[in-house]
């Protein structure tokens, strides 16, 4: 295991000093991680890579089903709102609902992440459970678009941010050697959630109507996440903090590169999720075709996120992320732009789902290798602020482009917009990789040789 992989187990300054050394034992890693924790709390620390770590990790996976399941399956509501309930409303206006779910979920994480580190994982998660449930129930009584924007969009997004704050930090702190795999398994829950959320939401809308679909989703969210929150254990107790935010992180270039990369990815990523159902309708498909395409997209994502974690453990986090972003552009532009049949859309969703969302597995691991375990929720929250801004700018821009330049008849300009931001994110990852390599001490090899190093 490289020193980068043990960054969450050692103080930041020792990572670069011992970049070529391996940890000699799990116990020594625990000692490094606990050096600033009072003696009476050290006995609480459990070793990294133990079986116990899979308990909170699997709890995170289940909660991800409900956190991201709502955003990953929003395409069902988007297609219903755009083509059935609010036909005369612009795509830009309707895009506010799904946009706010994800942008506030990530953007508010700058505050909820710090609160999770300061006041505890479980308390933060339970606040999220209550807010998300309330959002669903209130949305079920909405008659106007603005009411859905405030409930299904704003309130749910804020609630999801309270849930996601501790969830992002748990898998990386429990694992070192298998950190990528654990993160991949956890975030695969978002895709599994997207699978059954999509199928269940479509079935409920068809048979019970959208109000009862929202109410049932609210009840399920409250019941399941309440149980999973009980299993949110920290491996290392939090150190006392003088300030709520980890402002020292902003002094490092790697923080800004991670933030820029996340912003660019989220600016371009959601286009296919939001508009694949409408694309199917333009090709003569039905509402059910749109729902089935989202099912394929989420199924591919579930597989891809787990594989991404395994590949990243073997070949490096940044290597894997860079390659996946390049492949995403290669897949998205020709297959979506030239699609003339529903069958080609299924191929697009399967490939896009497997390759594009690897950043969701890998970004938390990159943060955990560059920053101390004790402040992971705070630093991830700070980087997610930029991801949330990317969602906000990207989704609203895509809605406007679809209305004004694609005239709601095609997606050529929307596709180009999405793909170019994914390509820009790949360039940022490449620059970040060079920066991290150049920061390593006592390495006199050539740039070409260093670029082949696993990072």
UniProtKB/TrEMBL annotation:
Domain Major facilitator superfamily (MFS) profile stretches: 57-443
UniProt entry tagged with the keyword Lipid biosynthesis: no
GO annotations of cellular component type: membrane
Composition-biased stretches (Polar residues): 22-33
Region (Disordered): 1-33
Chief localization: membrane
Keyword Membrane: yes
Pfam family, one: MFS_1
Keywords: Membrane, Transmembrane, Transmembrane helix
Feature: compositional bias, Basic and acidic residues: 10-21
Compartments (UniProt record): Membrane
GO MF annotation terms: transmembrane transporter activity
Signal peptide: none
Protein name per the record: Major facilitator superfamily (MFS) profile domain-containing protein
